[in-house]
Design brief:
With about 850 residues, this protein is mainly α. About 55% of the residues lie in helices and about 0% in strands. β2 and β3 form a beta hairpin. It comes from Priapulus caudatus. Belongs to the STRIP family. This is Striatin-interacting protein 1 homolog isoform X1. InterPro entries: Far11/STRP, Far11/STRP_C, Far11/STRP_N.
Length: about 850
Amino acid sequence: MEVGGGGALKRAAAVGLPKLREIFRRQRRDSEPTFADTPDLDFLYEDADKHHLEISELYSYTEENEFKFNQLFFEELLQQYTSSKWCELSSDEKRQHILRLMELTDISDRSQRMKAVRSYLYLVQGVFGEGSSEQEVWKTSRDMVFLLYKCGVFTALVELLYLEIDNSTAASAALRKPAVSLADSTDLRVIICVLYIMVENARVEEADDDDATKQLINMFRYELGQPILGDDLLAVVLFGMVTKFCSGSAPHFPIKKVLLLLWKTILVSLGGMHKLFELKNAYRADEGLGPVTEDTVSVTRTMRAASPPASAADLIEQQQQRRPIVRARKGAPIDEAVTLDPNGDKIAATDQWKAESANGGDQNGGFLSGARSEDSEPGLIKQSSLDDDENGLDEEVAREMDNNAINNSDDEIRLDSPCPGTPPPPAKGLPWTPKVRQRDLDAFLDYTREKFVGFQVQGDRTSLAGLPQPIHEGIKVLTAHLYVSLAEVQVKREEEIAKHPMSKPECNVMDSPTELLYQHTLPSLAQYMIALLKILLAAAPTSKAKTDSINIMADVLPEEMPMTVLQSMKLGIDVNRHKEIIVKAISSILLLLLKHFKINHIYQFEFMSQHLVFANCIPLVLKFFNQNIMAYITAKNTISLIDYPRCVIGDQPELTADTLEATPGDMAQYCWRNLYSCINLLRILNKLTKWKHSRTMMLVVFKSAPILKRALKVKQVMMQLYVLKLLKAQTKYLGRQWRKSNMKTMSAIYQKVRHRLNDDWAFGNDVDARPWDFQAEECALRACVDRFNNRRYSAATTTFDPEFQPVDNNLQSVLGRELDLGEEFKCKWEAWVDREVINSSICWEQLLVD
């Protein structure tokens, strides 16, 4: 064994080490990219990536050898009944064999039971042993998923999952081992893989699906949102697996697969962003509010990303490459201003300027376009300093606005035009319709009445007597852009119920999948959020390995460590890919829950948000972005050559240093899952801090402004939008000097973020710029949330507070009520009758009259 391993190392050193060293050096160079030539990222934000990529991310590269076991067990069980291949069987024969496999899943012999489950996995993997192309494998996989569902396999597999979760033998064996590996979670991984592939196929609707298939998909989606076995939802069971894993009682759980299945279960049962948009308008219509016509994803597709700032190294290099300017003597004409060429010869500055203008200006993308300074002396060309270009994004935004004003020709082809297929942006105007809150309109009315009339009129929003005509026009504009959110209506109703509990009873609660999920997760939601954030912290690239941190590598590390340099490099890529997929799954889970809870009821959203804030979600997200974010987004931790199903179809080429590097995935400008994760985390941070003064102050205290500004280097409009939203929220608290030195960033906010017409976000004199009282604000919010949860989800059968309980004033009912009398009273009841009845004179007529 040692001789073979040593020989492999020597051969690798002789043949592949120089190439591997070059790959490592190139990776180090790629981790520190320059941003001067950063291209626009043609990224399309969706609920998930393409179907085949989502399936391939389920498997780690160390599981490659397990595919053949699925095929062997399936063929072994099939050949016991027929010698034909699976593709040669009729539909009835296929159904009969699936039912025979279901009988095997009910026996007590674990080995035979898992053979049947691996046969299921081989079927949903597309029977790749009989397929000749990827398209054929995916088509067979989809057909087998719906055939298994019709036969009731999904429910049987969920029952097996429950049994494996409660398997104390596997948990105790994993706890005794010093290092948990793939072998400790084999049975769980097989069951979860089958469930995940079935749920993922239910998420996707193909164009060629017939009516029967669509009906089957709808039934499957509905079933995922209902209790399958017992009273627990599948999502709640998976949440329980996450908390067990984080507590250390089940370290062998394949946490990546659990999180992926949890994400897709929530996504399929509750719905994605299109379903959210429909639900929002439906709930607004129920409350008598107008529909929302602007969707963030749709609007951002019509916008262009701003150019990123140049790095300090690029600026120094540009300054070194520029020729020094020789100052003209005082009073001399401008033609005497000269510069030196590399040979020391003098060249007129004006000639050089004309030459540069003829060549299209500055060769560095217009970095010094318009370089002549207004306040400089004649004959000098203004040189940009590091401080000036620290806000390179701002200069690009201003230049972009100038170009839009000057070059407005439809015939001109712009270099920064959107990608083909993108809807053209509007010719003029801002991308968003401005909004005004009702409280802002009321504050404006109170202020103007106090100023011009001398008193305020509470509750009057129509009378404008005594106000000048410009104020009338301003109120008309504000009223035209008035937007009443669903959350404001729900909060107002909760305040009325708390104020009038007798006359404002609880309205009928809709039995929606979101409501059902909230009811089941309410008792342990805090533990679920803490567990997810712990795993997110362990998977973040900025986190350092600690002895007390949880081990999230249990389902990626093999039993035997790699022996060669090539195997080590493959395992390193697999580990990084594993962490990226975990971050993608957790960010998607949190964002989905926040969005659905917010639409269902605002206090459900606030309950989850508070648990995230108290678990330090805000500093965790900022810590995640405190890295070279461009290097993270462009990371190539994928080996497309061994992605499923390429690794099981046809003859497999030998994996070498060349094939490891030259894969089709390397042609992409970015990693889809990493950019998707970054946008999700920014959206989560924005939801947690929006309209929350104390949480916005947390962004200021944690110095998030420079971290967020570095994220603007990514030229993707949706990511830049949410970064600018977070910067806008804290601009008034950053001080005048920060606003003065980042004026062009303020212009980018003005250009891309929605306007609130009377929001003084850029000046710092807003009434919300008050002292930071985090505890008081959060306690007041928590009181409202607890009152809502206790009233709607309390285990007691009563609806009202005990003080407001109705009294039974029916004489017959009261006298006929059975009472429990204690033993002591029963022993002394005669003495009680003598004292209270016989020896007391009572006027019963007067008592009844009263």
